[in-house]
Amino acid sequence: MNIVDIIQIGLLILIFISVNKSMIKKGRLIGKRSIVVVIHFLSRLIPKSNRLVVFGGESGQGFRGNSKFLFLMMTKHPDLTCVWISKNDRVVEQLRAEGYLSWKHHSWRGIYYQLRATLVVHSHSINDDFSKSFLGGAISYNTWHGVGLKKVWGANKSTFSYKVLHESNKWKRLFGKLVVRTNQANQNFVVSTSERVSSYYPETFLVPKENVLELGQVRNDVFFTHSEEDREIPEWIRDEKVILYMPTHRKFGKYEKNIQLVIDFRALSEACKEMGYRFLIKRHMYSSGEIPKDYENIIDISNSSFDPQLLLKYADILITDYSSCYTDYLLLNRPVLFYAYDLEEYLQKSNEMYFNYFDVTPGPKVEGFSDLLLELKKAVAQPNLYKEERERVLGIFYSKENQGQVLTKQVDYIYKEILGIER
């Protein structure tokens, strides 16, 4: 046996090991998914209580957003038991300390409440916010967490759901659909904000057209009211002139650029000092790069627990890119700048979009930092420059009846149409 034969045998052994590892891994995944499918099906057999509602949100990691406000109002109903399910110990401890019912998703009590609940109210997917295996027999009321540009779930070609629905192999498609079904409850509703948005929600969330409810986003009620929660925002943010920079993620960090490569912090600081503004940076969790701490008018609040909607409420100008936060901000009709420094790359490599980006971004779109500063100064001097465009785009994302407070009408709908009880 010569050296070539030895090398060939070695390569064959490596290939065999690699293939078998892949098969074992694939087998484990299929086994795990099969167990989830079975438990999800069996959970339908558990009797439900129409006076028990479980809530969740923020991918199980936080207590905020649309589902939070529904929870706070519905806990006041004397005939309802409302339980917040979380994957985060801190959230559970916080809510219990405030006198609310809250349990971890995998705790015995958490499992019990998920199995027995008639209704689950959430802001992301059932898989993200709860233990999906236990919710097969429930009704899902998905408030979602933003009205944005990017395609998700069944409409996005890179997702498991989309690939399953378009799988050519009928047996793989059949099993895949059973797995996809575990991401839904027995009956599923999703909340929309306008007729245009409703038009693509059935494909996105895999629900019948009649189960898309145009009831708005309750988290935006904070724009039109004042409460104790406003005090959670520091007084200097509430009282001073503020520019808020809130960018989105790039494919969960895959295409992120170091923030120091896209922002000249010295020039930004000088411009803000000249204009009399503070510059707040609320980065996405996948962002990279350090923000210098030696500029007093540039403040990084990325790790703060401030409610993003309250930050929007007190921001005089918003800078973003492809984030859905600007569609909510349009309700305030204040200047929005789109710092799309990687526009071509993003449109080619990141999430697909429901809209033509240029048709629904009512404000200057800049790719260079020097242009951003010029547009920023222009927005300070002429805040009404894009006013009509903002109003036009607002009408696309939010119907007239959803451009104000919507919490009460959503709770009324849940009580009357889903739970069948009086307020």
Descriptive report:
- By secondary structure, the protein is of the alpha/beta class.
- The chain is built from 17 helices and 13 strands.
- A 7-stranded parallel sheet has the order 3-2-1-4-5-6-7, sandwiched between helices. The protein has a 6-stranded parallel sheet with strand order 10-9-8-11-12-13, sandwiched between helices.
- The relative contact order is 0.11.
Task: Please supply descriptive tags for the structure shown above.
6-stranded parallel beta sheet, 423 residues, alpha/beta, globular, 7-stranded parallel beta sheet, 42% helix
Topology, please?
Layout: H1 3-42, E1 49-55, H2 66-74, E2 81-86, H3 89-97, E3 101-104, H4 108-116, E4 117-122, H5 126-129, E5 139-142, H6 160-165, H7 170-181, E6 187-192, H8 195-205, E7 212-214, H9 235-239, E8 242-245, H10 259-262, H11 265-275, E9 278-281, E10 298-300, H12 308-314, E11 317-320, H13 325-329, E12 336-339, H14 343-349, E13 365-366, H15 369-381, H16 387-397, H17 407-419
Parallel strand pairs: 1-2, 1-4, 2-3, 4-5, 5-6, 6-7, 8-9, 8-11, 9-10, 11-12, 12-13
